[in-house]
Amino acid sequence: MDTTEELNGTYFYHGHTNVTKQELFWLIFLEGFVNHIGWEIETAAMILAGQPILPKRVVLGSKVKRTSIASKLARRILKDTRLPGGMKMETSVLGQTRATNKLGAIVGRAVPYIGYAQAVIIFAQVARETRNKYNLIARPKDRIEWAYF
Length: 149
Description:
It is a single chain. With 149 residues, the chain is of the alpha+beta class. Helices cover 49% and strands 19% of the residues. A hairpin with a 2-residue loop joins strand 1 and strand 2 (10-13). Helix 1 (21-35) runs antiparallel to helix 4, helix 2 runs antiparallel to helix 4 (103-137) and helix 3 (69-78) packs across helix 4.
C-alpha cells in the first residue's frame, strides 16, 4: 500500500487504515497544525505574557490592580522613551481605553493582540493547507469546495 490510498471506500493515510473522509480531514489538519508548532509556542507565549498576572501598586484614578509581564519588561527596556511632540496613543487595558505617550506602555499593551493576530493567521494557513492536501487525496465526490482561502 502507498502512503495515501483508497481501500473499500475508506482511505489509508500514513499508517492509519480504514480512515473515513472525516477522519482523513482531521488527520491532515493535525499534521498541518504540527508543522506550525514553532509559531504556536511563540503565539501562546505572547498571549500569556500580555495577561495581567503581576500585582502592582494602584495609582489614583486606576481600577487596574495587576499588570502583565510584557508591560513590565517593555517599560523597563524602553524606560522613559516617549512619542515625539507630546503625541498620545489610545491603548486598551482590560476593556478600558487609556491615552499614553510612553512607548513602553504602548508596546506592553500591544503584545497580546499581536499574539491573537498570529493565532488567526496560523489558523488560516493551516486551513488552506488542509483544504489543498485533502482535495488532492480525496475522491472527487468527497472533495470540499471552499469559497475562501
